[in-house]
Amino acid sequence: MELNGRIIAVLPAQTGQGRNGEWKKQEYVLEYNSDSQYPKRMCFNLWGEKVDQFNIQEGQQLTVSFDVDCREYQGRWYNDIRAWRVIEQQAQAAMSDIPPFAGGASVPPPFTAQDIPAENGNGADDLPF
After folding, report:
1. 93-128: buried (b, 16+ CB within 10 Å) or exposed (e) per residue?
2. Nearest to residue 50, comparing CAs of 78, 82, 5?
3. Residue 115 pLDDT
4. Over the stretch 34-63, which tens digit does the pLDDT of each residue have?
5. Is 120 helix (H, G, I), strand (E, B) or coil?
6. d(CA 42, CA 32)
7. For the chain, which domains are there?
8. The three-state (H, E, C) secondary structure of 40-96, written as one string
9. How far from 102 is each of 17, 40, 41, 105, 106, CA to CA, in Å?
């Protein structure tokens, strides 16, 4: 899943020690549908090196790709919204400025028979077997 929005809160980082070593988690609040009368909010988290990799700051406009999962703890169920990719919308706009392939196509042209180089003239295969 993916949402576009603005970061309105960066919650304190949480760290701890587990059986696999030290872990780090940070939660963020994303506000989306801001053009509606009642904007929506979503709290998502990042784990491990992704916290430092994305370096999310309050006020940034982002596109967040995430997975939703649920887990049970002592008879209660908790949702977990874990982001796996975060793109700053300015960076995303810059990527759209990359020129398309020749002829204005958004994908490369299909491979045709003319793309195959002519034989080297002696008719012999270059393959060793």
Report:
1. eeeeeeeeeeeeeeeeeeeeeeeeeeeeeeeeeeee
2. 82
3. 72
4. 888 999 999 999 999 999 999 999 999 999
5. coil
6. 8
7. 2-101 (2.40.50.140)
8. EEEEEEEECCHHHHHCCCCCCEEEEEEEEEEEEECCEEEEEEEEEEEEEHHHHHHHH
9. 53, 41, 42, 6, 9
At residue 8 the predicted structure's pLDDT band, cuts being 50, 70 and 90, is very high
Q: Confidence class of residue 31 from pLDDT cuts 50, 70 and 90?
A: very high
| Separation of alpha carbons 129 and 122, rounded Å | 17
d(Cα 117, Cα 34) in Å, to the nearest integer? 55
Q: Which pair of structure tokens corresponds to residue 41?
A: 């909010």
Q: Kindly state the tokens that stand for 74.
A: 């002592």
Beta strands 76-88 and 2-10, pairing class: unpaired
123: left (phi over 0), alpha (psi -120 to 50) or beta: left
Residue 104: pLDDT above 60? no
